[in-house]
Specification:
There is one protein chain. The strands form 2 sheets. The protein has a 4-stranded mixed beta sheet. About 40% of the residues lie in helices and about 25% in strands. The mean pLDDT is about 85. It is of the alpha+beta class. The N and C termini lie far apart (about 45 Å). The protein is globular.
Length: about 160
């Protein structure tokens, strides 16, 4: 009987060890590709490779619209902060983490105004340890009175 218990215990430990090893191998991995260094000061990377992802979240453009669906009429700084807060909320609600944002596009009605407050964006990127590919586009207009919109892809 003791021999059977020992064999069962050894088999169980071996199985758990193999299972844990396989779990480690299945975890999502990201790799950034940066042939240059200049983009580091601009808070983005040239490319992000994702392998072994368990999910991908495509987040619609987040703006400074409140919980009642009212578009902000505030200045660029305030709208940027509100858009980042809304992006945080959607990502968290979906069970993802900001640190796993791999693409973040910014649409703005004024790059001049946006870049005046770009440190807010850069501080948010640094705080969340995000290494994302990005594109900034100036557009003629956004919905109603909005000045900035953030569109993200997040993996886990």
């Amino acid at each position: 009987m003791k021999k059977k218990v020992k064999i069962t215990a050894i088999l169980l430990l071996t199985t758990v060890s193999i299972w844990a090893q396989n779990k480690d191998e299945e975890q999502m991995k990201t790799r950034t590709i940066n042939p240059w260094k200049w983009q580091n000061e601009r808070s983005y990377v040239q490319a992000v490779e994702v392998t072994q992802a368990h999910g991908t979240l495509y987040v619609s453009g987040q703006t400074a619209i409140d919980a009642n669906g009212i578009s902000s009429t505030a200045d660029m700084k305030t709208q940027l902060i509100e858009a980042l807060e809304n992006l945080d909320k959607v990502i968290e609600e979906a069970g993802y983490e900001n640190k796993n944002i791999v693409r973040l596009n910014i649409y703005t009605t004024s790059t001049e105004e946006l870049f005046t407050h770009f440190k807010i964006f850069q501080d948010w990127i640094a705080k969340n340890n995000i290494k994302q590919s990005s594109t900034v586009l100036e557009v003629k207009s956004l919905f109603e009175t909005l000045k900035v919109e953030l569109e993200a892809t997040v993996v886990k």
